[in-house]
Design goal:
Length: about 375
């Protein structure tokens, strides 16, 4: 008999960057491979938890709003007072009889009495609430309460799993699933039309992929680029996918911000960049590093949290708070052989862990959650 699993994909519409990409990557892998691991997976979407955004996954089972939300004057008050959220778990139970519910941070509700699995990206909202919005901190606290009540965790890295054990104790049930680049990210030539349209030359720019949130450490990267420019460095720094909050100032020259980046555009950016720079202070995985290496793009990353594990020796690691070290690396990328060395490392790293392996680990987690 197949184990019936419901994966909540609501967060993919709500979250910026890696959280959404990871959730959709997991959903695609489970759809393709879960049957081979003894599970049948459906996808759940809760529009009330993602108002103002598009449906994250066509075909997902959609939870209808309660009838009272269509009554003028009642809807606004009901949502503000949390009435809709308080009834969400019972309403989900009426439309899904799954054995296990895999829930997300933006919508951690599921039927009472059914085993729960949470994707554990990282505990940054618990350890550094100053880096997050108040809503994100509230969601993290609710997830932590679910774990303390027995929910299982699917960690995206060994580092995240270790942090979870320190926070929740050794009895916490954790499966490490890892992560992978989407299959669309492969080596090859960038699209000339994409680079030309952005005013970029192949191997003529450095790339950062991520959002303007404090832990991404983008102000340090901009400062490092300015210091490198003082030494004659001339390559532009492209910040792709930028969004979020606490955007840094862009007074320094040589920085290009791309706010709307499709997968097609991102593929050409990875293939065309001299290297990816990832100076984050805190990462549970670092999905852009995996995507870049899958394209044969070398990576310079911070020697912090999960990034050394993600690079697996196939990139250059630097202290996250040393702009001079990053400026030195930028200069070496422009004038020396470092870019080619990192590119060779990246090609050696790609393919070591794919989404099929992530799906297999997820299914192990579901089976363990049901005992």
């Amino acid at each position: 008999m197949m184990l019936e699993v419901a994966l909540d994909v609501t967060v993919a519409a709500h979250a910026l960057g890696g959280v959404g990409r990871y959730t959709l990557g997991l959903a695609s892998a489970l759809e393709e491979h879960a049957g081979g691991f003894g599970a049948s997976v459906s996808f759940l979407d809760v529009p009330a938890a993602r108002r103002g955004t598009r449906q994250p996954l066509p075909g997902a089972l959609t939870l209808p709003d309660p009838p009272w939300t269509r009554i003028r004057g009642l809807a606004g008050a009901g949502f503000r007072l949390g009435v809709e959220r308080a009834t969400r778990a019972a309403r989900i139970a009426r439309i899904s009889d799954a054995d296990v519910f895999h829930v997300s941070g933006v919508q951690p509700e599921s039927p009472v009495g059914r085993p729960r699995v949470l994707t554990f990206f990282d505990p940054s909202a618990l350890e550094h609430p100053e880096w997050h919005t108040a809503a994100t901190v509230r969601y993290a606290a609710r997830e932590a309460a679910l774990v303390r009540r027995g929910a299982s965790l699917m960690a995206i890295s060994e580092w995240s799993a270790a942090r979870a054990r320190e926070i929740f104790g050794p009895s916490c049930r954790i499966t490490v699933a890892g992560g992978a680049a989407d299959p669309c990210f492969t080596p090859g030539d960038p699209s000339p039309g994409v680079l030309d349209g952005l005013g970029l030359e192949r191997q003529g720019f450095l790339l950062h992929v991520g959002n303007f949130v404090p832990r991404k450490n983008i102000p340090m990267l901009i400062e490092a680029r300015a210091r490198a420019a003082g030494r004659g460095f001339s390559l532009p720094l492209v910040l792709a996918g930028a969004g979020g909050w606490k955007e840094p100032g862009m007074e320094a020259g040589g920085v290009t911000v791309l706010r709307e980046v499709s997968d097609e555009m991102l593929l050409s950016l990875y293939r065309g960049a001299r290297a990816l720079l990832l100076p984050s202070e805190y990462e549970g995985l670092g999905l852009p590093a995996l995507e870049a290496m899958a394209c044969g793009c070398g990576v310079v990353a911070a020697d912090s949290t999960a990034l050394p594990e993600t690079l697996a020796g196939c990139g250059l690691l630097l202290p996250p708070h040393d702009p001079d070290a990053w400026a030195d690396a930028m200069t070496a990328l422009e004038s020396g052989s470092l870019a080619e060395e990192l590119r060779s490392m990246a090609l050696g790293r790609r393919g070591l862990h794919g989404w099929r392996e992530v799906a297999a680990a997820a299914c192990e987690c579901y089976l363990a959650a049901t005992g």
